[in-house]
Amino acid sequence: MYIVTADEMYDIDRFTMEQVGLDGKMLMENAGRAVAERIESLGGKSDRILIVVGSGNNGGDGFVIARTLFNKGYNVEIVQIVPDKKVSGDALFHKTLFMSLGGQLAVTKDPEKIRKKVRKADIVVDAILGIGVNGMLRDPVAKIVSILNEEADRIISIDLPSGLPADEGMTEFLAVEASQTFVIEHPKISTFLQHTAPYYGEWETVPIGLSANENGVRIDRMVWGESNFRRSMPVRKMDSHKGDHGKGLIVGGNTVMPGSIAMSVKAALRTGAGLVTAGTTETVIPAVAAHCPEATYLLLGEKEIKPDANRTVSFDGFDATAVGMGMGRHDNAGKLVSRLVEDTLGPLIVDADGLHHLKPIISKVKERQHPTILTPHPGEMAMLLDTTVPELLAQPFSFSKEFAAEHQVYIVLKGQFTIITAPDGRQAVNITGNPGLAKGGSGDVLSGMILAMVMQKLSMFEALSNACFVHGKSADLLVAETHSEYDLLASDVIEGIAKVYRTFLK
Prior knowledge:
This protein is an alpha/beta fold. Helices cover 41% and strands 15% of the residues.
């Protein structure tokens, strides 16, 4: 499932019509019929359905929805909030079809007349505006949108809620607050932004015959879901041994946070790593051993992680390394991060306190011959960017893409919608997970899972996307079966990894 900007969606439409040969009337018919089928599953023929239409393609979809439902005996009425002369082209064609069948249509932009109709409706279909909105709505549309939000019991939006920007960067807007949105073909970027996602309500995509990359429009953003996970995960051979599945090193832990590295180690082993070594202090080792007896150890100081400037401790022999979880922000830890950036072979995953230490030496990362993966939450990403969290969250796709390209790193920007970004600009969004993950230790678990995944026979992009999928899906299955979003712990998520594998990799 691709994720598109408004311009990319226009390009896909144009290519489909000009090169493939599907004209606009047919695409509008496909969209309206597909949405009408979904609406049928939500209500009965006794429900009063009010469809509020504007001009343009979104309004045209509304006319097709109305005609389709009207032909099947549904109680449908249209309110057209623009003058007749504003309805033209394909939308006018479908309006004419609806009227020729005897459908009911009122043309008005009077807010109080519309308010009365909305109050009487069981379902209001928002077909006012499409993806071309930029800036604040003006009256009368702004007033009508406010009336829908105030009065409607249930609002169904087409493609995206009217007034909502399709793209990043806009934080001031007035938009319909939909109960449900039927997205046409591909979700837009605003579906996955913290400040715009709630306006969609529940959402699903409806195919209408458009396609992206294979039809000449290159899209580098996608939703990573169950089918991607099933397709990409390698099947283990009957004669495989622990060395085939990766020997990983996890560096971190201190006296006051021994659980961080312990959870990372166990998560890595549960996810499929063959061998995992905890590089930590003498005081932390007993906590890791109690939590995960399968781990081995690399001693990095008695009470505090130290850089070992004389290089007596070797980091050779590991297929991948993760650093940062619970290591602290003292100078010695910073020196150790610098050494790991310079010395380690294979992928290097930097999380938590490691990101704090990485910032002053970020220029060194580009010199590495192996992949570097950064796993920040929004506060850490804003720190790396020297920006604010609100500025980051308004444009997380753009910020991540620019940073990954500039420093040649992979970014796993954690959040409600975790965004995975590759140095070449490819991006994936993980939509698994729930508020139960908003607990201390969840990030440590994810880092361990990433360590295991990057050591499997996967591309780096697939490995990171799969780790995020399993992490969130574990939480989802646990909440659905045995836990709640309140009591779920990071350690529970580790135990839920088996549920994900058993469910999706049978």
